Amino acid sequence: MTRTSTALKRLGVAGVAVVTMGAGLPLLLATPAQAASAAQVTITPEAKSGAANTCVTFTLDVADLAGNAPTDTTTVNVILTDPNASATNTASGFVGNSTSFCTVNASGVATSQTGNNISGTGQGLNETQQQFVVAPGQRQVTFGVFDTQAENVAIRGFLDNGAGVPANANNGRFDAGEPNDTATATFTAGGAAQNAANDAVRNITEQPLTGDDANPVVAGGNQMVDVILRNQAGDAVANAVPSFRVNTGGANSAGTTGNTAAPSGTCSASNNAGVSRCVVPVANPGTDTITIFVNQTTGATAGPDAGEPQLTVTRTTAQAPNTNVAQARNIDLTPEGPTETVSGTDRVFTARVSDATGRAVSDVEVYFYNQGSGTLTSAFGRTNNLGQITTTLRSAQGQVGQAVVVASIDQDQSAVAGNPGNNGQDTQCAAAAGTGGAPATSTSAAGNCSDAEVSNFVAAPSPSPSATTTSPSPSPSATNTVSPSPIASRLGISVSPATITPGIASVVTVTGTPGTTIELQAYSRPNTTYSVVRRGTILENGTLVFRVTPGTNTRLFAAVTGQTGNESPSAVINVRTALSLTVVRNGSRDYTFQGRILPRRAGQLITLYRVLDDGREIITSQINTDNTGTYRIRRVFTGSGTFGFLTRTGQTLTNAAGVSNEGRARPTSIYAGPQR
To answer: Parallel, antiparallel, or unpaired for β 590-598 and 578-579?
Structure first.
């Protein structure tokens, strides 16, 4: 059917048919009363695109002159014209003709292709033709077009009925006047997607690594990238397989230029949560950008194409360590001191061991000592692939003083004073570089067997206003201090307990003259402006009690309603971060430690400790909370046994430090074997 006929039908012109005569002017004809044979053919859509090597489908619609389904069997000829085919005709088709018909499965992937299966005078040199049969009383049939090249394929469907010229009927070619319609299939460069799930993906986001997976990677290892694949509705897509490309300009981009995917490494099929892991080999130290993409029908070249979902991440690979422990020559402890550590909070120190060239040395035994206040959570251990090992300096709430933390390659603490120890490991660090124990010379300096840093414990900062905040008195004092005016204070105030967890009440007791009307003014961090939070009258015993349950550190004072100059001193209620901990066994010695902090905060550092029988706590892993205040740490252990675990988080401006289960270690059995 011509486009003119289609337009007239949409305008509601019934009982007419349109044919083209002469110069193409439409002529309206009366509808035969008993029309039954097909007289119109329409192809929809008029144009459709797809990647090369995929099956692009169209629909044929036939009707009689009245627009109804024909009562006779209808045969429709369809011709595909390949604009780039050669002119060589063979029995099996035309050489160079990349176009064919196809059938598709439920995912839209071509399951079979048929070529030039109609021969005769109607066959053009660059044409592929096929007949489709529409049963009586039916109107539609679907056909597919397949092309191995990027090009535009012209489609024409026609009724080979001669259109008033009997000699032209069933001659296998389209003749002027025969009912017909045309469409275009546009094929782009590329190929089919890996599966239907890939085509469903619309969004890729990175899922942060946790536990050991988050540790830095050294050259010769694998960078891991976990991604979440979601569809248009934001739901997870399972069984999709992304790809990755290490981009040029980085340390590991050799041989991966242009749109060529990385030659090695794999991405797993996404699980039911839409999570896939890409394992990217990195042979060289340095920084790389890695593009994770989903190869789809549209485009579908070997690399990421416009319109395909993709994500670019940055990964830094460290130099592979020196594994010769005897060449451990220098040790450096950070952070550089002197530092200030708030009492009751943790300070993590990291020691790095290197050889004479500055390269990290792994598996070196390092000893930690504390000369002064506080305690260390670990006294010794071995360096990792980055040449690093950590220990944590811990203090009690309110503790003051100075700590001198020492890290030494020598077990004998006398190495701190520059004297060699007796464990045989420090001979290289005390000798010249590369001499393996020979004495240092005037031209070759010895290494550093130990390093020390100083940290001073200071009292926890009260959640007081900044220096520009006025006093609770209506008029600022001359010095613009942050505490209430001390003028003739006749009110007293106390809080118990002074440190609470969210949801637990602290009792505020105000003392003063019986019958006095009192306002309790307070602010909770991050705010710094006082407001009235409670009102009451002092009882005959001279006290007034309030119960408050703030969620963050709070400063408060009492004032006589309507008066100034007789406010109480201010008091502080510190609110610990509430920290939960549960343990889930994933498999053989494979466990996930997870929980949440209150108040919920993103980016809060959580430290997982293993608690020894003597009460010492050994750092097992660290991670930051996500946007919901949740953390998950996955660990795979090498040994078995029952151990205690707890998590801690440090003090912030808004909350005091927190510990899981009120500081009681959670016993956990680590064992091999399948999940039960």
So the answer is: antiparallel
Q: Are strands 275-282 and 266-267 parallel, antiparallel or unpaired?
A: antiparallel
Instruction: Tell me if 563 sits within 8 A of 645, measured CB to CB.
Output: no
DSSP code, position 294: -
State the burial class of residue 196 (Cβ atoms within 10 Å of its Cβ: 0-12, 13-18, 19+): middle
* 652 contact partners, CB below 8 Å, separation of at least 6: 577, 601, 604
Tell me what the mean pLDDT of segment 464-489 comes to: 38
Closest listed residue to residue 388, CA positions, set 363, 367, 406, 411: 363
Cβ contact 625:543 at 8 Å: no
CB-based contacts of 458, cutoff 8 Å, min separation 6: 340, 341, 342, 343, 400
Contacts of 486 (CB under 8 A, 6+ apart): 569
Q: Tokens 């060239």: give the residue.
A: 357
pLDDT surpasses 80 at 139: yes
Nearest CA to 379 among 340, 353, 405?
405
Q: Specify the amino acid at residue 409.
A: I
Confidence check: pLDDT of 227 > 90: yes
User: Which residue is listed with tokens 């085509």?
Assistant: 199
Residue 373 neighbours by CB under 8 Å, 6+ apart: 395, 399, 400, 401, 402, 403, 457
pLDDT computed for residue 594 by the predictor:
93
Instruction: Work out the burial of residue 467: count CB atoms within 10 Å of its CB; fewer than 13 is exposed, 13-18 middle, 19 or more buried.
Output: exposed
Cis status of the peptide bond prior to 497, with omega within 30 of 0? yes
Q: What is the pLDDT of residue 56?
A: 83
Measured CA to CA in angstroms, residue 131 lies from 79, 112, 173, 451 at distances of 9, 16, 12, 86
CB-count burial class (<10 Å; 0-12, 13-18, 19+) for 11 = exposed
Query: How many Å apart are CA 275 and CA 292, to the nearest integer?
Result: 13
**pLDDT score, position 96:** 53
Asked whether 559 and 493 are in contact (CB, 8 A), the reply is: no
pLDDT, position 3: 44
CA distance 178 to 19: 9
Least Cα distance to 144 among 65, 209, 80, 202 occurs for 80
Residue 428 and residue 437 in contact, taking contact as beta carbons nearer than 8 Å: yes
Q: What are phi and psi of 177, to 5 degrees?
A: 95, -20
Nearest to 20 by CA among 183, 140, 175: 175
C-alpha–C-alpha distance, residues 617 and 623, integer Å: 17
Residue 475 CB coordination number (10 Å): 9
Predicted confidence (pLDDT) per residue in 378-420, tens digit = 888 888 888 889 999 988 877 778 888 888 886 443 333 333 3
Q: What is the pLDDT of residues 536-586, one digit of tens each?
A: 899 888 889 888 888 888 999 999 988 777 788 888 998 888 888 999 988
CA distances for 467 relative to 448, 477, 482, 555, 574, angstroms: 44, 12, 7, 15, 20
